[in-house]
């Protein structure tokens, strides 16, 4: 089997605390997983980051390398999945802003034609903000598979979320589908 590389980008929403199970599930399906986290998500995971690095065999990335700084490169991405994605990261990605390393990675993937999957994790009060629908529409028009609404993530009222039940399976299935239907890269 050919190795397929999945960049899993996690934002600071409660399901990121369960990202280990998503990494293990992806690996069981033959994905080589590289994990990137927003700075806040990284701080939430704290001492679990070392375990995630051991599990993936790659550094967990949260910031850009400084000019001249060496580091172990990740393999090229076949699919980039942003999950859980916050309103902040979704809006930034739709606008082409790169306030964090991981949003920058996803933005570059869109520009490079690498399949990108985004699954939000927002409460109903944030989902009601007008930026949410505009950002989702912008990303979808750019070819990003956004798993939001029917058949994807459905927002919960504040305090009603169940982060341990976040539908990681949908992200992995969408990644498989995106890779199978990816257009060949332009020469």
Automatic annotation (TrEMBL):
It holds the Pfam family Flavoprotein. Gene3D superfamilies: Flavin prenyltransferase-like. One of its GO terms (molecular function) is catalytic activity. It comes from the Bacteria. InterPro entries: Flavin_trans-like, Flavoprotein. Residues 20-123 form the Flavoprotein domain. This is Flavoprotein. It comes from Streptomyces alkaliterrae.
């Amino acid at each position: 089997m050919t190795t397929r590389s999945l960049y899993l980008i996690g934002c600071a929403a409660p399901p990121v605390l369960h990202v280990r199970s998503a990494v293990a599930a992806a690996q069981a399906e033959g994905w080589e997983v590289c994990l990137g986290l927003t700075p806040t998500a990284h701080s939430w995971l704290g001492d679990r980051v070392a375990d995630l690095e051991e599990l993936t065999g790659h550094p967990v990335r949260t910031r850009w390398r400084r000019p001249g700084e060496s580091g172990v490169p990740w393999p090229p991405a076949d699919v980039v999945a942003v999950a859980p994605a916050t309103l902040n990261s979704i809006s930034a990605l739709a606008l082409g802003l790169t306030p964090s390393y991981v949003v920058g990675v996803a933005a570059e993937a869109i520009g490079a034609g690498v399949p990108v999957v985004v699954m939000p994790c927002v409460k109903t009060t944030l989902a009601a903000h007008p930026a949410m629908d505009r950002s989702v529409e912008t990303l979808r028009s750019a070819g990003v598979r956004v798993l939001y609404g029917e058949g994807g993530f459905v927002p919960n009222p504040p305090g009603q979320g169940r982060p341990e039940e976040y539908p990681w399976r949908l992200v992995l299935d969408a990644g498989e589908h995106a890779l199978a239907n990816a257009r060949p890269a332009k020469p």
